[in-house]
Amino acid sequence: MSNERKTLDERAQMSDLERLRHSCAHVMATAILRLWPNAQFAYGPPVESGFYYDFDLPNHRITPDDFETIEAEMKKVARENQKFEKRIISREEARALAESGRLGGLGERPDNRSVFKLDLIDKIPEGEEISCYQNGDFIDLCAGPHVNYTSKCKNIKLMAVSSSYYLGDDSKPQLQRVYGTAFATPEELAQHLHNLEEAKKRDHRRLGKELQLFAVDEKVGQGLILWLPKGAVIRQQLQDFISEELRKTGYSQVFTPHIGKLDLYRTSGHFPYYKESQFAAIPERDQFQKLADEKCSCADLAAGLESGELDGYLLKPMNCPHHIRIFAQSPKSYRDLPVRLAEFGTVYRWEQSGELGGMTRVRAFTQDDAHLFCTPEQVGAEIIGCLKLVKTVLTTLGMNDYRVRVSLRDPDSSKYVGDPANWDKAEEALRQAAIWLGVPFTEEPGEAAFYGPKIDFVIKDVIGREWQLGTVQVDYNLPERFELEYIGADNTKHRPVMIHRAPFGSMERFTGVLIEHFAGHFPTWLSPEQVRVLPISEKSEVFASEVLAQLQAANLRATLDTAPDKIGAKIRNAQLERVPYMLVIGEKEAALQSVSVRHAKRGDLGVRPLDEFLADLVQEVASRSL
């Protein structure tokens, strides 16, 4: 990564694609310098979807209109087959190159000094190796690695341009950033660009508005989702689906308030340690009035709440402390365990406004949350039960391409609470469960929650994008912090183990992902409107009304289009609104007590007797077919 120091191990782990993209960043810099010789480059790493370079360019603002010119110059550099040459240089040599403007530039500025490179050189620890790479006239600080020659860098596309602050610090100079992507073959690049176009068509924010599924209203607040009637149908169907599965497996439904006392979250550890991601706490009303009368500052108020000198309340950031208090309402024996408590509980997080995005990043979201309290001996079986539930959810929705991420603690970090021996047991239980699943999984140290390790399901959608959705966590620590107990077979007190699980994760995020996964063409059981009856003329409206009544009597979501439009327009409107089934009814169909069936994706399915079609549709919905 240019100018970002990496260890030898990290460099060795850079994939071939990252190496190619890293090299393409240098090729882009070479091309930009040929076109604008007074540019000075800061740094340019490969990233997940391509690469970028940050640079200063006086008197010219790069726009997408420049991309074709830059790409043409990049392809010239590729055809020149320049060699990427690595050199180890002394700190003095590096500073001399930066002073001349040759490091990350061509030195064609009134003040040749490259202030970015001089700053980066100063950040390299004394005694650490300094390396640079050169291709053609371009030379830059770089830890590497690169491909051997620029001829490999020909399947490229510039994607976007934006502003950025040097090192991401808004107190430092503002630079220009150009993003690009690259692949080893033209076919892979073409597929990637096709997927990007497909992603735009599937964007849940656009489809959510077009299909009237949800809204974000500035008068309500950023990151706060308004579920419109059609979107509410989807949410309710998902909740009914998971609730049905929970009843089969012995869960009890509970409901908890949207707020809780600060002491509850002090005990759990959520407050004040994670206050940056929470809404501000509020004091008790009488205390607030007393502070107001005393003209105390906001800083005094916040300090009093944080220290515990003041009592207060918090919009709940998690459901688990509430479920813990439900478990603690009555004594428990080992015979009562496991206790499985489930709730569609809304929680609140203070996400930064720049990080909010449609339904997938919000400030209030409802989790299909559950907490299981069990004996240590029951942990393995309960984890497997949770994973089976997640698999059922994903299989039903056709999301069968997924991997598992086992998030572990970092033994060198102070972030994690509790006995290391319990952490070892929890991590091993999740590791064995991941093996049982039989799908690819990775272990990721440092990614565990502060109270326990977890398994995350990372789903790949139909156009290859990955989404983190369901999660299962094992927790020995919150039961300890809340002093939960049960009476064991030996008639003494024992500490239960707690398992947190949420197959959907959040109803908002999961629905946003489903909108994009299905491109708005939901399976019939999930569709807000399942059938639209389309009479060709007034002469067939009487039978069309009878058809609608039978559909609704069968508990199907159906409507009747009696607009004066021609049948072609009615079909087109239903298609645009992603209604799965359209029943076209003319005089012939009315006479035969039949319907002409069209499907939004499968087209014309022919004329069928109404009772036969109705029976098949009821079965399709009941079985939750895709």
Description:
The structure is a single chain. The chain contains 20 helices and 28 strands. The strands form seven sheets. It has an eight-stranded mixed β-sheet with strand order 11-15-16-23-20-19-17-18, sandwiched between helices. Strands 1, 2, 3, 7 and 8 form a five-stranded antiparallel β-sheet that branches. A five-stranded mixed β-sheet has the order 25-24-26-27-28, sandwiched between helices. Helix 2 (16-35) packs across helix 3 (67-79) and helix 7 (204-210) crosses helix 16. The model is unreliable at 1-13 (pLDDT under 50).
Helix and strand arrangement:
Elements: H1 8-13, H2 16-35, E1 40-43, E2 46-47, E3 50-56, H3 67-79, E4 85-89, H4 91-99, H5 115-123, E5 130-135, E6 138-141, E7 156-165, E8 174-182, H6 186-202, H7 204-210, E9 214-216, E10 225-227, H8 229-248, E11 252-253, E12 259-261, H9 262-268, E13 282-283, H10 285-293, H11 298-307, E14 312-315, H12 320-327, E15 339-348, E16 364-374, H13 379-396, E17 402-408, H14 420-437, E18 441-445, E19 454-460, E20 466-475, H15 477-481, E21 486-487, E22 493-494, E23 497-502, H16 507-518, E24 531-535, H17 541-553, E25 558-560, H18 567-576, E26 581-585, H19 587-592, E27 594-599, E28 603-609, H20 610-622
Parallel strand pairs: 11-15, 17-18, 24-25, 24-26
Antiparallel strand pairs: 1-3, 2-3, 3-8, 4-5, 5-6, 7-8, 9-10, 12-14, 13-14, 15-16, 16-23, 17-19, 19-20, 20-23, 21-22, 26-27, 27-28
Helix pairs in contact: 2-3, 4-5, 7-16, 13-14
